[in-house]
Amino acid sequence: MVASIIESDVPARLDRLPWSGWHLRIIVALGTSWILDGLEVTLVGSLSGILQSKDGLSLSDEAVTGTATAYLLGAVIGALFFGRLTDRHGRRRLFLVTLATYSLATLCSGFAVNLPMFLACRFVTGLGIGGEYAAINSAVDELVPSKVRGTVDLIVNATFWAGAIIGSFAALLLMAGHGIPLSLGWRFAFGIGGALGMAVLLLRLAVPESPRWLMLRGREAESNQVMAQIEQKVAASGGQISSQPADKLRIRPRDHTPWGEIFRNMLGPNRQRSILGLVLMAGQAFFFNAVFFTFGLIAKSYYHVPDTRLPLELLPFTIGSFLGPVLLGTLFDRIGRKPMITASYGISGVLLLVVAILFSQGSLQLTGMKVCFAIIFFVASSAASAAYLTVSEIFPLEIRAIAIAIFYSLGTAIGGVGAPLLFGILISHGRVQVAWGYALGAALLIGGAICELFLGVEAAGRSLESVSKPLQAE
């Protein structure tokens, strides 16, 4: 283990860089992972009717929602497993491994011949996408200048919804026939995700290792070399880089952070931040997983929408969810994290409670239901993206990836894994029961707003190291 103290100006040099074409290329290579996740969620939701038919796998309502749970369970385990490896072995190595895992498992999903095989493929696909959450969010936040970190992070996470839009249209075209039988169309739909994953893998080969992570591991020369290459590329794309000396950070490098120290930090000095991360993650996970994995069943059961039209029913949600972070993202840097996160969670929760009341009374027709959810998702998608941004910012550099993994996993386990199964049961029992499910989601979102109001950390425009001092700092 390395014991000597080093002084590094790498964090300050990264934060003072102007936004450039190089940053945009890196974000495209990394952020496309959310496109793939959005594609996955929407495809499964859109194809639920076909998967229940003889052209699919003849699945029951419970089996369809069970495949969603298998995917989310895999994501929980994958986030924890790959998150730990990301902090220990580097951002770059792991975001290549996790994407390869996702791509292969998605391709295999299209070849499933029965429920056990399909469940296994969905679980392994979840492993890969869970690992992506830890590796990608940590890499993005460590490479993006502090003054635009909030905007960029929200837009990157919003690409989930770009994938959802692609998934809706892809499912619609494949289910509409056009020479492809339904028995093959749903299989080709999964092939799209696998093929996109392989293409993105090639783009990621050009993404460097995080200089911040290299600094922590005592690889000072390599960290400075990567930093110099980044500055050269930013300058070549027209960015003006300051020649003034940057502030230095004193670090005692080591090869890893022990589990005991990780949990002592989270449950000790950062206990309130841990509560905040858990509440924000659980609230958004329950809402989005419950609605997106099950709205196809609601449209079919209560509004008698045919299977081939189910992909269209999710389209208004995806468009609203994509536009929300894109249009509101800059406010998280200009106005600040605390007021924007509090407002986005609170407004989403109140609007969802209104929908629950109207739905229980039978007052919402399908069009009204879609309009209401499109508005809610416009706001709630910013809240969900901000949850990942919050967890990435408020914990020390050494444990950033595993912190994201832990709170993503706990939030998904508490608020996400059981949500599709719960709604699968509620849908079969009637409107009032479904409305109670929506009310539970509303309570979790409002709880997130209250928690952010009292425990939130204002990180807008601040360096990661000032928001949370590294454990190895001297």
Characteristics of this structure?
20 helices, globular, 474 residues, mainly alpha, two-stranded antiparallel sheet
How do the strands line up in the largest sheet?
1-2
Largest sheet: 2 strands, antiparallel
What's the count of strands? 2
Structural class computed from helices and strand pairing? mainly alpha
The CA-CA distance between the termini, in Å, is 17 Å
* Strand percent estimate: under 5%
Shape: globular
| Rg | 22 Å
Summarize model confidence as the mean pLDDT.
87
Summed up, the helix count is 20
Fraction of residues in H or I helices: over 70%
- Could you list the spans in which at least 5 consecutive residues all have pLDDT below 50? none
How do the SSEs run, as a string of H and E?
EHHHHHHHHHHEHHHHHHHHHH
Structure description:
The two termini are 17 Å apart. This protein has 20 helices and 2 strands. The longest helix is centred in the middle third of the chain and has 33 residues, at 271-303. Strands 1-2 form a two-stranded antiparallel ribbon. It is mainly alpha-helical.
Lay out the secondary structure:
Elements: E1 6-8, H1 10-16, H2 21-46, H3 48-52, H4 61-89, H5 91-109, H6 115-143, H7 149-175, H8 182-204, H9 211-216, H10 220-236, E2 249-251, H11 259-267, H12 271-303, H13 310-313, H14 315-328, H15 331-334, H16 337-360, H17 366-394, H18 400-427, H19 431-455, H20 464-467
